[in-house]
Amino acid sequence: MTKTEALAALEKEVEADESLPLRNVSYLVFGEGNPDADVLFIGEAPGFHEDRLKRPFVGLAGKLLDKLIGEIGWKREDVYITNIVKRRPPENRDPLPEEIEAYKPYLTRQIEIINAKAIVPLGRYSMNYFLPEAKISRDQGKIFWVDGRKVIPMFHPAAALRAGAVMQTLRESFQKLPELIKTNVVAHGVSGESNLNPSPEKQQDTPNVQTLF
Ligand code: URA
Q1: CA 208–ligand 1 middle distance (angstroms)
Q2: Model confidence pLDDT, tens digit, residues 93-126
Q3: What's the predicted TM-score (pTM) here?
Q4: For 8, 9, 138, 141, which has the most beta carbons within 10 A of its beta carbon?
Q5: Which domain holds residue 116?
Q6: Considering the domain boundaries, does residue 198 fall inside one?
């Protein structure tokens, strides 16, 4: 089975899963992009525009995401974009812990299929899904290893649209992304979670591991 076929089969499974929350209130926004992407961007949950078009990041925040991707010489079609919760919560409220839990097995499989070089969680909520102890302003733009995968949290584009300083930091982190997906500089020192430790296997695989702290 190709990655495209595996993703299509997974999408059908999500669509058919009657136990999933938000099923009766909004459409499925499974995610889209290059199944062989080097970078997998993960937002929090679809909003109004995403629900209408059944596509992730197509509103104002999405336009900014497209622009930032373009500024580093990539195209939206080169990357893969999805969300932790795959249906829009009513009134754009934050997803509930049980909603995040319910969609988790599907996101996990989506991550496994795409097997990108780096996962870029967009915003605090998405970052804390992978790195519960991390702080967005302190840890955005740094590399972490979570369950053997490289995770580079960044500010949410919607936050950048609200504050010029956030925009500047997000843009700077984006500029570094092509380099960050190649290097193995590891940020560790965020304490308290076992999955925050840099993967020991990765460290052995990559002798030039450095630390930021
Ligand atoms: N914000 C998100 O977190 N995800 C989207 O798909 C759109 C906006």
Answers
A1: 35
A2: 999 999 999 999 999 999 999 999 999 999 999 9
A3: 0.89
A4: 141
A5: 3-182
A6: no
